[in-house]
Structures are given as structure tokens and as C-alpha cells.
Amino acid sequence: MSDDIILVDAQYAFMLGHYQLALKTLQKLKSSSPETEMLSNILTYQVYIAQKKYGVVLDEIPEDTGDAELKILRLMAKYFSGTISEQIATNELDAIVERQVDPNQNLIAIAATMYMNINMLESALKILNNANDTYCNALTIQCLLHMNRCDLAGKAVRRMQTADEDSLPAQLVSALYYLKKGGDQLQEALHIYEELKEKHGPSSLLLNGQAAALMGMNNWVEAEPILQEAIDMGVDETFSLSIRLGMIRGATNMLDAKQFAATKFVLEDRSVLLTTALQERLIRYISGNNVVW
Length: 293
What we know:
Blueprint: H1 3-15, H2 19-26, H3 34-50, H4 54-60, H5 68-80, H6 86-98, H7 105-117, H8 121-128, H9 134-146, H10 150-164, H11 168-181, H12 186-200, H13 204-216, H14 220-232, H15 243-246, H16 256-268, H17 276-287
């Protein structure tokens, strides 16, 4: 198996939330070339950040590193660990981005993800305009969905589907778009999540997506055990909305934190399911709208 295939397999494992599998896959790399080593390091630190191992990232990436991608990953670890304020993180990120004359796709995606996590969506879209790969296209769609621009997101989804409908980023972002749209398209989202779960095995991302679609269709009986399975796998309510998939160049897990909050609410009080208005608010909440309980 070539190193290129190994890197893709590791990326896909990470995008699906299979973190240990991603790290295990990276151990199969044979080449010691600087490029391969850099790509492996970037993905490894992304996994550590997703696992909240911020101290490991800060210990292993030197503060004076000359690699822009690693600078941003170190900045992420500092921000998510609460070491620096949002304003300081924003200023440092802006400074790193402004120094890049011709940023590569990895740097663009990592920077855009950081911008999204500090709610600077316009800055994220601005830097994503310089990208043209599948992962960054998926991250652009995720950003548009955060901005409630389903019209633009829908056009971008259709372009991705035309280019490579079977790629994992295209499938994940399509499912996310269908969840956001709701209605008849919830069945499409459910179908994608079920197929991916059958092919790759269950993960909190896929289980939450599957349950969100079922709840959107008012199928609470089937949704509840799936939500419980997601909780048993260790879903974290405080996990950042886009960190898990966005960091791997545009994947699409903006729903996890919201879904888990909704999950606990459903499981703790089944009686709320009898209230139609609350059901509708719950569905909007899962779909990404800012609903205050």
C-alpha cells in the first residue's frame, strides 16, 4: 500500500471520528521524506486536539516553529485549552495568514477551521476562496451552513456531487446539508449515514447524524437507542462544533455538540417529546440554528 493511500485512509478515519484508527494507520507509513513526515505530523496533532490532548501538542510543537501549519495547530491548542483569549488568538491567526504569499491547501483548511471556531465566518470564507480541493470545498459548505446560506450551500453541494459524489467529504457534507434543509431530504441524510455506518463502522459522528435525521422525521423511538449508543461512545457536549472534521481539511461535524446537548435533553425527560413546539425547536437546534432553551 502506497503512502498516499495510507494518508487518505488515515484522514478518512479521522473525519469519521475514529481517532485511534487514524493514529494506527499513520504508523504504516514507510517514507521518511520531509513532505510525508509533515503531513503525518499535521494529522497526528489534529487527532490530539480532537482528543483534547492540548498539552501534548504544546509540548511537541516548538513555540518558534517555522511551519505555518504547525503554528496554527499550536495556536489552536492554546486557544482550546484556555491559555489565550479569543482576541489574542484572532490577532495571532491574522498575522500568520497575512504572511502567507501562496498558502497550500492544508494551511488554508486549518486556518479556516480556526476562524470558524472563533466565529469569524467571513474570514474563513475569504481564505477558502484561495482553495480548490475537495476538502476545502466541503469546509466552505460547512461555513455557509453556519451562516444559514442554504441557497449557496446547496449550489456548492451539487457541484461537489457532480465532481465526485462517492468521496467521503462529498457524502458527509451532503448529509449535513440535507439535515439542515429538513423535510423530505431528511430521508436522504439518513440513507447516507446508514450506508457510511455499515461501511466504516459506527462512530459518534455517524450515530448523531442518523439520530438527528430520525428525530427530524419524528421517529423518536428509533432515535433514542442510537443517541444512547453515541453517548456510550463518549460524545462530548463541550466539543467544538467544527473542530473534529474541519481540521482535516473541510470535513463536516458542525452538529456534534448541539446534538449531544439535545440527546441528553431527550433521554432525561421523555415527556418533552409530546410537545410539538418543543420537537420543532429541537430539530432546528440540531440543524444548526441558534435556539435558546
